[in-house]
Amino acid sequence: MHGMHGRMLGFLGDSILVNGTPNAEFSVKSRAYRFRAVNGSNSRIYKLGWDDGTPLTAIGTDGGLLEKPVTLPYIMLASGERVDLWLDFSGRSVGSKLVMYSLPFEGAMPPMIGKKRLGKKSVAKQMGGGMRGGMGGGMMAGGLGQGDKFAIATFKVVEKVSDSPALPKTLVPFQRLTERDVDNKSQPIPIGISMKPMRPMLNGKSFAMNRVLDFERVALGSTKKIKIFHDHGSMKMDDDKKSGSRYFCESLFWASQPKQAAKT
User: Fold this and answer.
1) Residue 21 forms beta bridges with which residues?
2) Share of the chain above pLDDT 90, in %
């Protein structure tokens, strides 16, 4: 990684690997499978979808199984995100192939870059060799831009079978959290997002794996309310008072894993 823009936007390579293999191909039977995917790219966002438009059915995410299966035309995966897919090849003939693509999308990059994505026209070439240590040598050095369309893996039906597992209508029970379940209703834990020149901040600090502020610590097994907001002004986190701030999101989270999720 070289240059300011490369550090800001992330490096995108020119080869897509699945389980360490380029041009990955899976041999499957004419039945359903549970397919577990994790985005192991450190900067790339994937828009998973089939080449023939067949919808995708998700049965789990990072937190475990979903309450019910969800069927969507495509599924977005950011870095580190996971999804459990129910891939059903029932009724497909032997020898047929289905290709999983990352479908094209826009909006994930700054406008100047988004309009000139690689795969349409090379930004690195447009901006000249002098940028090789900056934007050209960082994110733009590879051959696949953020949001370009490309194949991820091919699934080939190699055997016809008559039996296939059925997809349950309900997967696991969920506990729906409300403000009645939290112990800090009037004092939510703040997560203030701000930006110094070329440096994003959380609660007035740069991110570090070993840095946890006192008010960010929660008791194991407790349920807390969090307020996520864009901090426009100064933050006095010592007394939990914020000036010049605008809240845009509230959420609840478990400080520990729910029992039903642990069992699955």
Assistant:
1) 18
2) 53
Quote the pTM value: 0.71
Region 124-150: mean pLDDT is 54
Phi, psi of 8 (to 5 degrees): -75, -45
Q: Token pair 């996971």 is at which residue?
A: 82
CA atoms within a 13 Å half-sphere pointing along the CA-CB vector of 180? 3
pLDDT (average), residues 83-112:
92
Q: Residue 34: how many CB atoms within 10 A of its CB?
A: 12
- Amino acid type, 93: S
3-class SS at 115?
A: coil
d(CA 263, CA 261): 5
Rounded to 5°, the CA angle 95-148-8 comes to 135
Q: Mean of the pLDDT values across residues 230-255?
A: 50
Closest residue by Cα to residue 102 from 66, 76, 80, 79: 76
Burial degree of 205 (CB within 10 A; 0-12, 13-18, 19+):
middle
What confidence category does residue 1 fall into, taking pLDDT thresholds of 50, 70 and 90?
A: low
Query: Alpha-carbon Rg of the chain, whole angstroms?
Result: 22
Instruction: Tally the C-alpha atoms within 13 A of residue 104's C-alpha that lie toward its C-beta.
Output: 8
162 pLDDT more than 60: yes
Rounded to 5°, the CA angle 122-127-133 comes to 100
| CA 145/CA 226 separation, integer angstroms | 35
Q: Show Cβ contacts of residue 24 under 8 Å, excluding neighbours closer than 6 positions.
A: 17, 18, 152, 153, 154
**Model confidence pLDDT, tens digit, residues 175-201:** 888 999 999 999 999 999 988 777 788
DSSP 205: B
As a dihedral over the C-alpha atoms of residue 154, residue 65, residue 103, residue 140, rounded to 10 degrees, the angle is: -100
